Amino acid sequence: MTQVTQESPVRGEGVWGKAVAPEYQGALGSLSVNSSLADVLAKGVEELRAAEAAGEQRETARCGLAVAEAYRRLGRITEADQAWKASYRAARSEQDAGAMAWAMWSGGTLARQRGALPLAYRLLGLAAELGERGDDVVARGYSLAGLAETGRIQGDYQAVRELHAQLLAEARRRGEARHTVWALEGIAQMHRNTGSYDTALDLFEEAARTAEAADDRRGRSWALRGIADVVSVRDGDTERALALLSDAECDCRKMDLSSALAYNHKMRGNVLYRAARYTEARDTYARALEEFAAMDEPRGTALSRLGLVKSLARLGRDRAETATELAELRVALERIGLLHARDMAAKAATELGVGPLPGPVPAPATAAGQGTPR
């Protein structure tokens, strides 16, 4: 896998205004980025019904976007899928390219959450084009960010490294704190995954400071999760890592961030596993697994299952059973489109002394086969 450059990305922290949520539009434009998702959904459904009753298609599209995003972040996948499509239809009826872009962005983000990476690339690419056609700079930026994040999650760092840096520079230039935080976290994650822990920690900490200055609790919770990961793997500082995750969990609960909370719990499992606290790790991974399964989130489900398999192996599980499940997970991770899936499974098998894994080795995935970010 291509290594992320060790040079620092565009730096420079400034004074930030309050973070905003551009996906909350129309009658919902006054909602805070920190609004509880339950409140967003209730208000969104109320305003959506009023717009539909009045025959106001533009308002229907914009209220429907907030409803779709609330459903998605709450893990209510079926409702989210229906809502973004309805928002798109309403926007298309008015030939509102900007609203069409936002609806398509929501659909692409949902596709990535569900592990459908080729579909995510297609929808987010269309969203970026619609944003440009509608002269909606923010919709275009968020759509390009979605493409960058999809490639990063897939493990195709070579394709998206420059796009992350470009989006960070643009966000800073426009003073968009929330987007700046996202870009910092994405770049930090690539550095962390390629072993540049010091750089990763600097960027995660900058993201946390920026999010806090802009009162972006969601961004801060993800940044704290990243910091916890690095101090755990680099320094072996288990207690600090757990304290950071507990801090982040408070914000996740206040805002009903179901997906972020599940990833927080999976990271807690990672921290406990690294500390050889295998019983606690097993229980934490099992909890995260239940949360991801309830949201139909295949990537989180597979990663939590991997942690659970490793914990059970450390607690004395049969070696053959461990090898069989790791082989199944290798296939599941490949199916999602993660380029490093085979490496993850092989590394776990070597770590646990259960290799080689049974069954056929999946064919290598390629960025072209999964759709190339644009």
Automatic annotation (TrEMBL):
InterPro entries in alphabetical order:
TPR-like_helical_dom_sf
Q: What is this protein called?
A: Tetratricopeptide repeat protein
Q: Region Disordered: list its residue ranges.
A: 352-374
Judging by the UniProt lineage, the source's domain of life is Bacteria
Chain intervals with Low complexity compositional bias: 364-374
Source organism: Streptomyces iconiensis
Point out the signal peptide segment. Answer: none
